[in-house]
Design a protein that fits this description.
heterodimer, A: alpha/beta, 10% strand, disordered C terminus, B: eight-stranded parallel beta sheet
Amino acid sequence: MGKIAVISVDGHVKASRREYREYVSEKYLEAFDEEVKAAEEAGIPDAGNLNPELAPEVQWDSDRRLESLGAIGVVAEVLFPNGQPFQINRLDDHPRAASAELAEAGRQAYNRWLADFCARAPERRRGQMQTSFMDNEQAVRDIYWAKEHGLGGIMLPELTRDSRSFVDPELDPIWAACQETGLPISAHGGASLPDYGPGGFAPLVVAMAENAFFSNRSLWMLISGGVFDRFPELRVCYVETQAYLIVAALQHLDSMVDPAGDWMGFARTRNREQTTERFASEYLGTNVFVGVSPFSSVQISMDDLVGKDAFGRPLPGVHIGVDGAMFGVDYPQYESIFDRTMGEVATLVATPGVTDDDARRILLENAARVYQFDLPGLQPDIDRVGFDLAEVRANAEELKRKMPRETRAPLMGSAAAGATASV
Amino acid sequence: MAKTAIISIDGHVRGSRGQYRDYLPAKHLEAYDEQVKAAEEAGTPDSGNLHPDFAPDVQWDSDLRTSKLESIGVVAEVLFPNGQPFQQNRLDDFANPTNAELGEAGRQAYNRWLVDFCARDPERRRGQMMMSFADVDQAVAEVYWAKEHGLGGIGLPGLTRSGKFFFEPELDPIWEACQETGLPISQHGGGFDPNGPQGSLGLRGIAPGFGTFMLISTENAFFSNRSLWMLIVGGVFDRFPDLRAAWIETQVHLIIPTINYLDRICDSDWMGQWSIKPTIKRKPGEYFGTNIFVGLSPFSPRQDPAGDVLGKNTEGETRPGFHIGTGPLMYGVDFPHFETCFQRNMGEVATLVTTPIITENEAHHILFDTAADLYGFDVEALQPDVERIGFEVSHVRTHADEFTQDLPEFNIQHITGGIGGFGRRPASAKTA
């Protein structure tokens, strides 16, 4: 078998302050300049959530970023923001601004910059457009704009108090536009968290625990709302949303629609007959994909991830499965596994029951399929930066041993970054 | 072994409309009479969530209720409301009143009625005083009031948008009063208003149909259990080590993965990067059985007797990770709710006691002992009633077939709470 490489479904980028200025509409330049001036006077670095071992330039320097990622076996990336104009808290993955107008201005500047950034290495990047679902027509326009400008998907907006629930069929034109353009949707973790008040141990840990709920909330809404039945080609990825809860939630949803149980009888008594066509877990791998990021057996056990025992027999219950799972490095955020990526790859490859074919899917092919990377086009880069699975398997113990100690929150994802912003 | 009986840690009661009138202050009577008149004109029954097999009187008729429960082997109950004056939606387990002043009057009227209702059969009832956290001083005074008036615990309020998070140290005087009086706290499921609690987001409009039904049913598990991890990581059980709390009908399928996750956090050394030191003394899972208890209600062990709740596989071997285990586990009938296991109660007991990995001793703990200890039932005083209406576990075990045959189908068992049996392994098409 030839070499493979990792497609990381979780990377974060932003422009430098100076670059962003070129993408902000003239109307908002004064406000932008004021914001930059205030930040510079306060000595705030030109960075979002950034690992201290990395220079801010990796957020926006195209060649440097490709080189750094190539060095750890990553050939391509799916991209989310690491800060955009008018964002209040620079560490949030879901930018919030002081007003809806400024939020929109910031999103537009980011999207325009992102289109240019991706165009510098179009085979190797899939930028996810920022949009809002508050206005269907605007969202639909944004989706076609993203397609025309070479962006590779839509980042699912977080739910706010004013949002429509994702079960609401009023949102159908948005799903229709995604299906029509073939663009996948990505839900990124750290979404929709309430304000837990001042920092400290309890608010931080509660934020981490509840992040799994709030960031995955759209999953059961979309499934139960029948969105995947009405739009069978629609694909939604859950990236850094804490996969362990997805497994638990899908199991619960499966048990609810189980004809041997009685929830559906109860639903009938409330005139809420089942309208979904499959068990919830059956949308995994066709419509629902899970980007485990930063990839770690601590976020989700390899058993729950691959769902097979050492002899390749299916384990009972719901699992993400080798058709639904993808690998995220979360570069260059604080909690990124960039300095132990091959160790995590080795952990996956050496999991009993995981075949080379399984590993290829999780590391490369599922992401290529969902985000429409051109694998033959990538092959020269894969041959250059990639690795041989047989070699990884043979050296798995050594690769794992060389991993630095986990001192960087492999578990938490971005929720903690936001929660500690006020610490 | 001697006979045992069930202490159901989940029963629901209320005064009749006429009775409640006697417990409300004069200044709110006009509003109350108007509400009752409107309900009667609309033909709304005088009941909360009530199974159609039962007359409304089982909600407030002391003797009728006791005899009904005795007929299925239940000797005593822990009591939650089935409707309070000025409640917004009569089917909810929480009042969620639209008018704060009237809601407060309704809550206090319920508590006073509950005192009298429990006093009619004090050995066999532990009423949970419904608490409000709006005013901490008042809440503390009410804990002592509950103790003086013979109530057996404190029913936690749900989180509201304007409310305090349970980890906030401002609430410490309340926990201190509970510890001081020895009253346990109980969080009953359904403790949130889907339209507005803190953090649940007032999602614009709630669409009708199946999706919203699934949404509310699924998210209940999260909102009802938030107090659990908030109290743990807030260090409340470290500052008040004798404080004991139970989560009743809150859906353990979400408790287990969340506690597993929190335990893994505590096992790793991630915390250093934030320069935040853990302020709790044990791993979150280690508070179960000493400070934290879990009431499965309506009880059903059927689907996966070796699942995540018990934490043992079919060979009786301990499974890795966090599980509830038999120590903190208690049995709820959820009488007289729609989803109660009343009609199949002894069948559920038979299934429990014939589960291979459950010892007779463990069955006694789940059915009776743990609840008796937590809620302060006087076991000796109950003994004559246990002898009269109870059963021998060994007898149920050897005659299990008689108890499990002709059981009615699931009567919508896990609507609000159940856990999908003991496990989380549904017979999905994928695994079949």
